[in-house]
């Protein structure tokens, strides 16, 4: 395998896009190439993720993006893995570059749903669940994660204030992130006063429906030895699956796909959780950050809930988690999220994270979950 | 929007040789890989493994909100998803609560609390 880097990265501000996902995807791709100091013609393949293109009456985004970049002859494919779509695209890019099939690959995710109302958006999000066996029984995404949260609370006594501390922390981080959907801090009192959406989850436990686009350029060290920005060395790119439906899994208090992907990633990199300096994890709901920290191996089962409340995972804590604000507060434009976590690592490694810069930059981990964990990606990044 | 035929016979499931039991769509066992799955009929009696009460419903459940989404551990093994109407008399659902499938719902597996006499309400 060839040493493979992320050489360029860019994102739009998350929230409400003033243009189509297709336009934003193309624009942010060019910005990622500029960050790498590369030209579109150096790209050998493009992976595009756009889960809800049908909401814009548009699929087959790849050729449109490539044509807009002036490289119509470059092959492309759409990668859909629900909320983990673009990290799945990153994994495919890694495989192609590390395996020597391409020297440079563009990965872009984009989503636009803000032209739909809450009910329609909720339905689009729910399309990642099992339609006949979950959705037709009344499941929504907050509902599915709330079902996990209740099981977790029942097993480990997870407290409302502990979920709230995660929301407060991630909003504080997003308030320092110019790309974030919500650039405002919230108090625990605000959290506790917010309405229950799906018990025990409140409005402020939930990520927003966001528009947004993010892109990275993946390239081989041997062919792009001097990118314009400090590259991220991809130390591991691992994915796993698990039984799709929650009701068919033996346990409800964790995501087995996270455990499997993390084990693969740490083995690939020859690293352990102790060596990770900071993480961007999949916190679509506050409970999901707790699940991630436990399933990734940073805390024993049932013990991660205190991490937010005790400040361990704060920006200046011993293990910063979601310095970007996470899905929770930076926002969750579904197909852009996986790549946007890598954009955060890229900005941190290039000391461009401003007021949210984390103190230690040895090794970073990104964790991106598809739906309720039917899919999961874990990437580890280090320095050259 | 056509839901297809999946899920319309909700109390039917399959059991694998390893004991894995499911009410979803399987051609092989996700635990052991066995392809010879025995069809079974569920009694519809069980206990709540976990649940949530939704005040913001999905499109399909606008008329039912607020309602509970429930995962039910069935007495004969296996766990299926379903829903319960908001219960104004017996309090909210709870993990471990005994419930019983109620036939005739327009969609999904409707459950109701099973009281001490064994009747559902």
In short:
The complex is a heterodimer of chains A (384) and B (121). Chain A has twelve helices and eleven strands.
Topology of this protein?
The complex is a heterodimer of chains A (384) and B (121).
Chain A: E1 4-11, H1 21-36, E2 45-49, H2 61-68, E3 76-78, H3 85-98, E4 104-111, H4 118-126, H5 141-156, H6 160-174, H7 188-193, E5 196-198, E6 201-202, E7 212-220, E8 232-241, H8 256-269, E9 278-280, H9 286-295, H10 305-309, H11 326-329, H12 337-349, E10 364-370, E11 375-382
Parallel strand pairs in A: 2-3, 2-4, 9-10
Antiparallel strand pairs in A: 1-7, 1-8, 4-7, 5-6, 8-11, 10-11
Helix pairs in contact in A: 1-2, 6-9
Chain B: E1 12-15, E2 21-22, E3 38-41, E4 45-54, E5 67-74, E6 79-85, E7 98-101, E8 110-113
Give a verbal description of the structure.
The complex is a heterodimer of chains A (384) and B (121). With 384 residues, chain A is of the alpha/beta class. Chain A has a domain at 4-116 and 209-220: Peroxisomal Thiolase, Chain A, domain 1. In chain A, 34% of the residues lie in helices and 17% in strands. Chain A has twelve helices and eleven strands. Chain A has helices at residues 21-36, 61-68, 85-98, 118-126, 141-156, 160-174, 188-193, 256-269, 286-295, 305-309, 326-329, 337-349; strands at 4-11, 45-49, 76-78, 104-111, 196-198, 201-202, 212-220, 232-241, 278-280, 364-370, 375-382. In chain A, the strands form two sheets. Chain A has a nine-stranded mixed β-sheet with strand order 3-2-4-7-1-8-11-10-9, sandwiched between helices. In chain A, strand 10 and strand 11 form a beta hairpin. In chain A, helix 1 crosses helix 2 and helix 6 (160-174) crosses helix 9. The longest helix of chain A is centred in the first third of the chain and has 16 residues, at 21-36. Chain B is an all-beta fold and 121 residues long. Chain B folds into two domains: 9-41, no CATH class; 45-113, OB fold (Dihydrolipoamide Acetyltransferase, E2P) (Beta Barrel). Helix content of chain B is 0%, strand content 36%. Chain B is built from no helices and eight strands. In chain B, the strands form two sheets. A five-stranded mixed β-barrel of chain B has the order 4-5-6-8-7. A three-stranded antiparallel β-sheet of chain B has the order 2-1-3, with no helix packed on it. Chain A binds chain B through residues 118-120, 122-123, 126, 130-140, 142-144, 146-151, 154, 195-201, 243, 245-248, 252, and chain B through 3-4, 6-7, 22-25, 30, 49-62, 64, 67, 69, 71, 79-83, 92, 95, 107-109.
């Amino acid at each position: 395998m060839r040493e493979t880097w992320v050489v360029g990265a860019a994102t739009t501000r998350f929230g409400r896009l003033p243009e189509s996902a297709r336009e934003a995807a193309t624009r942010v791709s060019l910005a990622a190439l500029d960050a790498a100091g590369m030209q579109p013609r150096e790209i050998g393949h493009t992976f595009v993720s756009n889960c809800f293109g049908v909401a814009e009456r548009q699929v087959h985004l790849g050729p449109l993006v490539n044509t807009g970049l002036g490289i119509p002859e470059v092959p492309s494919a759409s990668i859909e893995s629900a909320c983990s779509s673009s990290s799945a695209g990153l994994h495919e890019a890694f495989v192609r570059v590390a395996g020597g099939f391409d020297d440079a690959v563009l990965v872009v995710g984009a989503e636009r749903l803000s032209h739909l109302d809450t009910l329609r958006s909720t339905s689009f999000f729910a399309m990642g669940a099992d339609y006949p066996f979950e959705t037709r029984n009344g499941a929504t995404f907050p509902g599915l994660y709330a079902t996990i949260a209740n099981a977790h609370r029942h097993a480990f006594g997870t407290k409302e204030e502990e979920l709230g501390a995660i929301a407060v922390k991630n909003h504080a981080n997003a308030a320092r992130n110019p790309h974030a959907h919500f650039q405002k801090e919230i108090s625990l009192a605000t959290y506790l006063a917010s309405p229950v959406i799906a018990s025990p989850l409140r409005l402020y436990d939930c990520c927003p429906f966001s528009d947004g686009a993010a892109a990275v350029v993946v390239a081989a060290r041997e062919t792009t030895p001097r990118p314009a920005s400090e590259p991220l060395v991809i130390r591991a790119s691992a994915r796993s699956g698990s039984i799709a439906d929650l009701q068919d899994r033996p346990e409800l208090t964790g995501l087995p796909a996270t455990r499997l992907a993390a084990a693969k990633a740490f083995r690939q990199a020859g690293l352990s959780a102790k060596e990770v300096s900071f993480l961007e994890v999949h916190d679509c709901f506050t409970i999901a950050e707790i699940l991630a920290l436990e399933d990734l191996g940073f805390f024993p089962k049932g013990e991660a809930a205190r991490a937010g409340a005790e400040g361990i995972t704060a920006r200046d804590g011993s293990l910063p988690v979601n310095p970007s604000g996470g899905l929770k507060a930076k926002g969750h434009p579904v197909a852009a999220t996986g790549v946007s976590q890598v954009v955060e690592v890229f900005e941190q490694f290039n000391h461009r994270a401003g007021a949210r810069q984390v103190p230690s930059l040895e090794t970073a981990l990104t964790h991106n979950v598809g739906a309720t964990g039917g899919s999961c990606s874990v990437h580890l990044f280090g320095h050259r | 929007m056509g839901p297809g035929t999946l899920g319309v016979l909700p109390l039917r499931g399959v059991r694998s040789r390893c004991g894995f039991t499911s009410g979803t769509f399987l051609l092989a066992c996700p635990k052991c890989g066995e392809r010879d799955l025995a069809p079974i009929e569920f009694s519809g009696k069980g206990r709540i493994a976990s649940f949530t009460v939704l005040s913001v419903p999905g499109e399909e459940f606008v008329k039912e909100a607020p309602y509970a989404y429930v995962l039910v551990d069935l007495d004969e093994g296996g766990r299926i998803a379903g829903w319960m109407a908001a219960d104004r008399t017996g309090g909210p659902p709870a993990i471990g609560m005994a419930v019983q499938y109620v036939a005739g719902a327009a969609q999904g597996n409707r459950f109701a609390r099973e009281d001490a006499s064994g009747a559902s309400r």
